[in-house]
Amino acid sequence: MVGDDSGAVVGAGIRTAPYAPYPPFLLPMPDEAAVALAHALHARDEETLAINGALPAVDLCAAELTRLGGRRVQVTQHTRLHEPGELAWPAACCTPTAGRNSEAGNSSTPSTSTT
After folding, report:
1. What 3-state class would DSSP assign to 3?
2. Which of 20, 24, 72, 94 is 20 to 30 Å apart from 35, CA to CA?
3. DSSP assignment, residue 94?
4. How far apart are CA 18 and CA 5, in angstroms?
């Protein structure tokens, strides 16, 4: 966790990935905090071969780690989080109660079963 001068949390990172190379996941944080995290990881001699999370914290931390350790940064994947503001069902043909079950004369409420 990263705090400001008053002690308030302004950013956080976790390292709980269950797979090697156990990359840290960074949440948004001030630029200085991302750089400070890189210094802390380097000072503890923690091998950090990957970093995931929110930009620009990831970019800044990775760039500083490579500067300190003499390596290079390579982006292998960009991801995005899409969040719908409001879901709206299309025309009546596709309402939640219409569909295969109601067309076949079955109940309009889908059922699930587990085996």
Report:
1. strand
2. 20
3. G
4. 33
Cα dihedral 100/103/109/113 (nearest 10): -50
**Burial class, 100, CB count within 10 angstroms (exposed 0-12 / middle 13-18 / buried 19+):** exposed
DSSP code per residue over 30-79: -HHHHHHHHHHHHHTT------EESTTHHHHHHHHHHHHHT---------
Enter the pTM of the model: 0.65
- DSSP conformation class of 4: -
Whether residue 35 contacts residue 60, with contact meaning beta carbons closer than 8 Å, is answered with: yes
- Number of Cβ within 10 Å of residue 115's Cβ equals 2
